Amino acid sequence: MRTSIATVSLSGSLTEKLTAASRAGFDGVEIFENDLLASPLGPEEVRARCADLGLSIDLYQPMRDIEAVPAEEFARNLRRARHKFELMRRLGAGTVLVCSSVHPLAVDDDALAADHLRQLADLAEEFGIRVAYEALAWGRHVNTYGHAWRIVEAADHPALGACLDSFHILSRGSDPKGIADIPGEKIFFLQLADAPLLAMDVLQWSRHYRCFPGQGGFDVAGLVRNVLDTGYDGPLSLEVFNDVFRQAEAGPTAVDAHRSLLVLQETVGVARPPAPVVPTGVAFAELVTPDAEPVAAVLGALGFARTARHRTKPVDLWQQGEARILVNTSGAARRTGTGLAAIGLESPDPAGAARRAEALLAPVLPRRRAAEDAPLDAVAAPDGTELFFCATDRPELPNWRADFADEADGSHGTDGTGGSHGTGVHRIDHLALTQPWHHFDEAALFHRSVLGLHAQESVDVADPYGLMRSRAVTNADGSVRIALGVGAAPTDDTVHAQHIALTASDVVAAARRFREAGGRLLPIPANYYDDLAARYEFADGELKTYRELGILYDRDAHGEFRHCYTMTVGRVFFELVQRDGYRGYGAQNAPVRLAAQHTARAVTGG
Ligand SMILES: O=C(O)c1ccc(O)c(O)c1
Ligand SMILES: [Mg+2]
């Protein structure tokens, strides 16, 4: 199906919006009147620009407060409309959206409304223009799509039809099944938006919290199925008023938007991109750092050993059990400091995973590699993290592990097998990636749609300097868990850093060995343990041990969770976790951990 986006959904000048929409692959746009009024380009120039960019102008909007008003007011409205239709003729826009009136003079009189819209359609027809009437959820008298349709039906004019907007319909809890009563050819336009389920004034909800389909709580797909069943053959158009998208760079937002429509079309069965290839595990986490020593010291204390070196690049493989961490000292990190730059995902079909990514607007990254290096595909997540599709030790597929030469003496640092010096770490439990503040919704949609991961509910945790939002994306058996976090505002990432959580069979023993090997654990305030003592009963000495090692504790319906943190190196820290049935991420303890990290930074400056 054709896709379109309202220019109000994107940031920037009208020119920037049009360029972003075109580059993201949209077929057309809705020109939002304020964007045109603010543009130095005249209507004819906008028309030419859209033609150059391959964009149809599918709608001009909004035209407000037209119908069901006293005669002299309506006369003024027709005069206004004539001006707008003249403008639309210059612009080459064939359909105008008329919102149901919120005007104080509007009366609750369907016959009068129908008569006014009929007169408006007569005038529009002179310009070759169609009128799409939309029920605003907060319309003064007309605020449901069923009511708007009854008026359109009563007006009975070929140039008058309905505009359906998923937000106005679903926010009011209207049943989309009633759409079946509208002939497809009388649905002149379909606007789509999702939104988080909020209990608030519907106008504010609409103007600030709309998001792209799949990022909120509405059943947009269900509504679209009802519309398509009528035979509607117009575009799927996104109309999203969202405070974050208004500020974020238009390009990535437009890609996120178009991706949401590609996934929506797949969901309703009108598009069949390559099937998702769900990752089956974490092959490695890759850190970039300008100086390997501080990272090597922490990894060594955590019980990892440097077991191999890349044959052609300055990359070391550190391993313990099935947990693998690459340490890359190439130049990239000189600017950014130590950070988590890439994740290797075990894939049953790396090539198929890359095809899915490409189809959903996540192109395979160009990669500099030596001729003998395995031809690995990687795509960039919205936060820039490179995601590699791996087939570790599966010789029939490109095997990244073959690019590394095992260390001659078996290992450097401590025993890499978790033996006498290992800390009993055996796998990567999860990775926590801090998203740029404006990529939170985009990141969840990306990981869900491109990788086929399941997005869990988001949770808000209190950081001493703002609210952190976090949302986990996981595969079915939990062998891939990525916690996507976003800070309150563009704050110093050092605290809202990336972290690698490592599963240990005994977190107390692991923490003790880490500390004995010179590692520094994040100190946790004594008050936290006093609260734990009040909330739970522990074996003798157990709480004392947790206090001594900075171990945090939580329970859910499925079991217990014990975890502790290292100090931060650059923008990365590590977490040791012991899950005994527990399925969460310790969000209950996040405010204490975040505050402790702020304190640690203040004390150590690191
Ligand atoms: O909030 C508004 O004013 C507004 C304008 C045009 C629309 O299509 C809409 O759904 C809302
Ligand atoms: Mg709308």
From TrEMBL:
One Pfam family linked to the record: Glyoxalase
Gene Ontology MF term list: isomerase activity
Chain residues that bind Mg(2+): 430, 499, 575
Top-level enzyme category: lyase
UniProt KW keywords: Isomerase, Lyase, Metal-binding
Top-level division of the source organism's lineage: Bacteria
EC number assigned by the record: 4.2.1.118
Catalysed transformations (reactions): 3-dehydroshikimate = 3,4-dihydroxybenzoate + H2O
Functional pathway: Aromatic compound metabolism; 3,4-dihydroxybenzoate biosynthesis
Ligand binding (a divalent metal cation): 134, 165, 191, 239
Needed cofactors: a divalent metal cation
Domain VOC: 281-392, 427-579
Function: Catalyzes the conversion of 3-dehydroshikimate to protocatechuate (3,4-dihydroxybenzoate), a common intermediate of quinate and shikimate degradation pathways.
Family: Belongs to the bacterial two-domain DSD family.
Protein name: 3-dehydroshikimate dehydratase
Source species: Streptomyces osmaniensis
